[in-house]
Amino acid sequence: MNDEGSSKIPELPTELEREIFELTATLYPGSAYQLTTVSKRVQIWMEILIYQTVVLAFPKSRTNLFLRTVDSRPASFFAGHVKNLYLPFVSYPDAQKVLSVCTGATNLACWMATPSPELLSLPRQPIERLSVSIATLMQSCETHKPAFFHTAFRALTHLDITEPSNPLVDTDWSALYTLPKLTHISIGNLAESHHLFLLKELLANCESLLCLVVISDDGEFTKHINEEIYDKRLKILPYFHYPKDYLTYWKDVQRGLSDFWGYLEDN
Question: How far is CA 87 from CA 60, 105, 113, 208, in A?
């Protein structure tokens, strides 16, 4: 006897079905791309996960593919989906193009060289975490003041400066002291003696500061730090992607694993 009803696959509630697919994509990083082919509704769910974190590093083909997607979809799609945007190595025009549509990003890393006197087109929405070179934030070569006046910085909690000023430029960092929610600062590639004074100034003047990270592989410089500064808020790392290698770090970030700040919070 063939009971047709007993052979039917039971239908699950939509909410439960979505949870199953999202859990699968989380447990098996990279599977979200394959799951988009299951159905239209699954594609919508998976794209929320896929575009939540965008990393445009290596290979160049990834950047080209994303730029083609930008051309084929409305800006509102990226504004609503992209929350974590990492642009380690893209050209200035490509960065501006991506930033013009990813206006909902609250976690932004953008390391491209900025043609003077042009500035980075920051998202209109306040940023919570920012990684950028100091040159990108300069208002002009005359004032040497980082452009922290932008409304995007009102909610800034984590700031990573990838390249400090050179010894010939007396950068005014006082704008940092007025940011109301800034609790974490990281400064990379430190090695010069004048940077030691900068660290002391930040620790003394940023009242809300909970953590100051120094990124340096210069043994002599880090020795001076340990000799002259004793502050529990100070941490020293040899490189930003510590303890992973460069490529593994970015692959893991793309998969939704912890980035630089996440590692510090977990350790």
Answer: 12, 12, 11, 28
Tokens of 70: 């930008």
**What are 131's two structure tokens?**
């990684």
Helix (H) or strand (E) holding 224: helix 219-228
d(CA 4, CA 129): 56
pTM score, whole prediction: 0.84
Q: How far is CA 121 from the centre of its chain?
A: 15
Taking the CA of residue 32 as centre, how many other CA atoms within 13 Å lie in the half-sphere pointing to its CB? 22
Tally Cβ neighbours within 10 Å of residue 219.
9
Domain boundaries along the sequence of the chain: 11-50, 52-266
Q: pLDDT tens for the chain, 267 residues: list them.
A: 455 555 565 677 888 888 888 888 877 877 887 888 888 888 888 988 889 999 997 777 788 899 999 999 999 999 999 999 999 888 888 888 999 999 899 999 988 766 555 556 666 678 899 998 777 776 544 555 666 777 778 889 999 988 766 554 567 778 788 888 999 999 988 777 778 888 998 999 988 999 999 998 888 888 889 889 999 999 999 988 999 998 899 988 888 788 888 888 877
